[in-house]
Automatic annotation (TrEMBL):
It comes from Candidatus Nanopelagicus limnae. This is Mg/Co/Ni transporter MgtE. InterPro entries: CBS_dom, CBS_dom_sf, Mg_transptr_MgtE_intracell_dom, MgtE_N_sf, MgtE_transporter, PRC-brl_dom, PRC_barrel-like_sf, SH3_actinomycetes. It holds the Pfam family MgtE_N. The lineage of its organism: Bacteria, Bacillati, Actinomycetota, Actinomycetes, Candidatus Nanopelagicales. One of its GO terms (cellular component) is membrane.
Length: 424
């Protein structure tokens, strides 16, 4: 099909379209398709497609009317006209198709059999309007966790799509979101109602949900954590960076925080509780208690192997802290720092004790945000060591920790509102 002539497929399955790149007529990529917007009609008539939700940098979701779409083909969507950068907000009687329809339980009218929606297809009518005419459904399997047969039926052959569902699945929806980064998935959750947020949160594994919570604004993550069962909430907190877990527990209230700490593994709870004892905007309140800590007799090869671990954040991977035993925080006395550039220049068998940078002055946990910022800037560091009065390493404050505290509270929402105001 020649998309340069504005060709459009007659039938488009929307779950498959999610993540497809969106281009302007000049071939410049504008963003990606994240969902479609439709309006339900009376008498079980097929819903009318109003347009697409497009994600444009930086993680902003806007609405593109379907009338602006000139081409839909495998791998791309082409639109025309100027973008309205106002953040998408659903109106009354509008539904976000993938977020609300996928995984719903509906009934086949002829057999009264319960089936699950796996995908929906929009088709173009003779008038040029788009309607959801087809629904791909899966029948219930006979055995435990077995999938049943799947088929594509007409919209008129099902009922119950507009009936509120208490426990809606999320497996097909998550399939459209699987490749999103944690920050992007957090933006998706922001636009969903709390019921759907909780359903998705419960389907994510602990590590993935922890990453997403770290990217959410304060109000949203407190709201979501409150909906999780105690044991699950504690498991997720254990997977979060200790400083982020401490920040979140400060926000949920003292009684709730103590209950969750009691459910956490003692070692994890101890580190988080220690951080909660510091003032929020102090070095102690901002630091992570899990920097890379090694001894002086560790080799360069061993240090690089630690840095290569995928779970190490970029800010912490920029340097290793060399201490006397024990090397779990609070450690023995801090001896110095070895930067990754030095590690890359030295022979693999070189011992860290011989290449220490001992000129970096560590900070006390009481140091202010201004003092931490000045230290990072003065020494061109991505992380600064925090020590107690006996020079034992307590943790490290990274650049991203400082930025989180320099920006205003709920800065994600503030930035979004600011861009919307500027675009109007």
């Amino acid at each position: 099909m020649n998309t340069s002539k504005g060709a459009i497929l007659n039938r488009v399955f929307l779950a498959r379209l999610a993540g497809t790149a969106v281009f302007d007529p000049n071939g410049d990529q504008l963003g990606k398709v994240r969902d479609a917007v439709a309006t339900l009609r009376t008498n079980n008539q097929p819903p009318r497609i109003l347009g697409f939700i497009i994600e444009v940098p930086p993680r902003k979701r806007i609405f593109i009317p379907i009338t602006r779409v000139t081409s839909i083909d495998n791998g791309h969507v082409i639109i025309t006209g100027l973008l309205n950068m106002r953040r998408f907000e659903p109106r009354t009687n509008e539904i976000t198709v993938l977020s609300e329809m996928l995984d719903r339980s509906v009934t086949l009218i002829e057999t009264e059999e319960k089936v699950t929606v796996e995908d929906v297809a929009m088709e173009i009518s003779k008038t040029g309007d788009w309607f959801i005419e087809r629904v791909h459904v899966m029948k219930r399997g006979s055995g435990f966790r077995k999938r049943g047969a799947s088929s594509t039926v007409a919209w008129s052959e099902i009922s119950g799509i507009n009936i509120p569902e208490t426990h809606q699945g999320v497996s097909n929806l998550l399939g459209t979101l699987a490749n999103l980064r944690a920050a992007d998935l957090a933006a998706v959750l922001h636009d969903l109602n709390i019921k759907r947020k909780v359903e998705i949160a419960r389907a994510l594994n602990d590590e993935r949900l922890a990453d997403v919570l770290e990217e959410m604004d304060e109000a949203s993550r407190v709201e979501l954590l409150a909906e999780l069962e105690g044991e699950r909430a504690a498991d997720v907190l254990e997977e979060m960076d200790p400083d982020d877990a401490a920040d979140l527990l400060r926000e949920v209230g003292k009684e709730k925080a103590q209950a969750l700490l009691a459910l956490m593994e003692p070692e994890d709870a101890e580190g988080v509780q220690r951080l909660m004892g510091y003032e929020d905007y102090s070095a102690g309140g901002m630091m992570t208690t899990e920097p890379i800590v090694l001894t002086a007799d560790t080799t360069v090869a061993e240090a690089l192997a630690r840095i290569r671990l995928s779970e190490v954040a970029p800010g912490l991977a920029s340097q290793v802290f060399v201490c006397r035993q024990p090397i779990e925080t609070p450690t023995g006395r801090l001896l110095g720092v070895v930067h990754i550039q030095r590690l890359l220049r030295e022979p693999p068998a070189t011992l860290l004790g011989g290449i220490l940078d001992s000129d970096i002055a560590p900070l006390a946990p009481e140091a202010t945000l201004s003092e931490v910022s000045s230290c990072l800037a003065s020494y061109n560091l991505l992380a600064v060591p925090i020590v107690d009065s006996n020079e034992r390493l307590l943790g490290a404050v990274t650049v991203d920790d400082v930025l989180d505290h320099l920006l205003p509270e709920n800065w994600r929402k503030v930035e979004s509102l600011k861009r919307e105001s500027e675009s109007n």
